[in-house]
Amino acid sequence: MTDLPNCPACASTLTYSDGAMLVCPECGHEWSPAADPTSGDAPRVHRDAVGNVLADGDSVTVIKDLKVKGASGALKAGTKVRGIRLVDEDHDIDCRIDGFGAMKLKSEFVRKA
């Protein structure tokens, strides 16, 4: 039997490895074995296309024309977006863009203004 650590979330001993991650079948918590389990989940740092750290409320500029599903046109490069909100999902930025409405953007397609 392998010597896997207990789950840091619920202390279950039934953990198993799934590729590079460890998984707890009781609570569903997943973690990297290289991460320190006592530190908890570190907050994710969001960076723009050139490496600047983004924060809630920042203004960003779109750096590439982006096709928008359901819209008649594309979101043009150079469009300024004010008051972004950062989320931990596939698309990192929730925002409202004049002429398009509410939208989710990936941080790799914006530059901090």
Automatic annotation (TrEMBL):
<feature type="domain" description="Protein YjdM N-terminal">
    <location>
        <begin position="4"/>
        <end position="32"/>
    </location>
</feature>
<dbReference type="InterPro" id="IPR013987">
    <property type="entry name" value="YjdM_N"/>
</dbReference>
<dbReference type="InterPro" id="IPR004624">
    <property type="entry name" value="YjdM"/>
</dbReference>
<protein>
    <submittedName>
        <fullName>Alkylphosphonate utilization protein</fullName>
    </submittedName>
</protein>
<dbReference type="Pfam" id="PF08274">
    <property type="entry name" value="Zn_Ribbon_YjdM"/>
</dbReference>
<feature type="domain" description="Protein YjdM C-terminal">
    <location>
        <begin position="46"/>
        <end position="113"/>
    </location>
</feature>
<dbReference type="Pfam" id="PF03831">
    <property type="entry name" value="YjdM"/>
</dbReference>
<dbReference type="InterPro" id="IPR013988">
    <property type="entry name" value="YjdM_C"/>
</dbReference>
<comment type="similarity">
    <text>Belongs to the YjdM family.</text>
</comment>
